[in-house]
Amino acid sequence: MDQAGLDRLQHRTIRVLVAAQIFGGGGFFLGFAVSVLLARELTDDDSLIGIPVAIAVAAAALSAGPLGSWMQRSGRRPGLAAGQLCGATGAVCVVLAARADSFLLFCGAMALFGAGNASNLLARYAASDLPTPDRRGRAISMVLLATAGGAILGPNLAEAAGALGDTLGVPDEAAPFAFSAVALVISAGIVLVGLAGPATAGAGTDAGGVEPVWTRMALTGAAAMVLANVVMVGIMTMTPIHLDDAGQSLGVVGLVISLHVAGMFLPSPVTGVLVDRVGRLQVIGASGGVLVLAGGLALPSSGHDTGLVIAALVLLGIGWNLGLIGGSTLLTDSIPLSQRARAQGRADLAMGLAGALGSLASGPVMHGGGFGVLALVGGFMGAALVVVALRAASFAPRPAEAG
Known about the structure:
Layout: H1 3-42, H2 51-74, H3 76-99, H4 103-126, H5 133-156, H6 158-162, H7 165-168, H8 176-194, H9 216-245, H10 250-265, H11 268-277, H12 280-298, H13 306-334, H14 337-369, H15 371-393, H16 398-401
Helix pairs in contact: 1-3, 1-4, 1-5, 1-8, 1-9, 2-3, 2-4, 2-14, 3-4, 3-8, 4-5, 4-14, 5-10, 5-11, 5-13, 9-10, 9-12, 9-13, 9-14, 9-15, 10-13, 11-12, 11-13, 12-13, 12-15, 14-15
């Protein structure tokens, strides 16, 4: 295919991914925003309320590896659509679990629901298959920006969707999952109908199942995603509880989470330009610095200080955005095309498992030491990310990191 044909295919791929991510992001984050509150409705033990979210994050992580290998063999389309349909099934099962008043069934349903987010995250790599390295960061950022539209809108629908709880015979915190199911099915349909076939995914480039070669730069990219994700998920998971304990309404919780999600995704175009023009490692280092600042603001906040909580959560999202785009681009640069989709899936596996650990640990940490201690731990991890970036920079000249 000539360059003009590749450009047309890239533009089509971006358009389809943008449309799919609006629904996929909205469906996932609508459910995610209320999941910890639903957990509190279904169990009397506050130390357990982080478990369903941890299961969802872990399921997304465990799905990422197989989906990445599948995409390496067969293309992006089947893997992305399958993940979204699995997430829709999980959302329906959450509603059924709430009707049965079963915390155990809720945990199982969240495993299926979480798989949908594996597709949401892996979609960013589908945008990076065709561009040259000097435009790769911007291509990834466009898909993440598209996710923002749905991800910001989703949590703000929580209160309106919750009003259908009586109609569905479930708690108000469970009703939004019905909306999530519909949105995720629409996302899967857009991918199946609109996304081009194997040519967009590197199908036919599978190197016979050969394991990816993990260079220092590839490991640095993966580490950036892991550290940024564990900090973000750990603090975000407990923020609704922090606000609820202070007597804040479901509408305030939805507003805070939606602004946090805005911080996660809206800076993407700027981040993409910085990654391509300033450097991958510089952006990764900035990610760690912003996460330290977010932890510092969250440390003294109470659930009544809505403005301070919002500021901390927005910075938390921005730090995650810098780490994800910088790390994803550096990883993609550092792995040959014949191994790339498989390596991307493995990196997202590690990132997701780290996020699950952060979510799982966040409940006991907050239960034992409060929200401030959780913020302090996040700040220390942000500092560790700065060290990772500085150390990698000492081994690689700037041209090498840009691919």
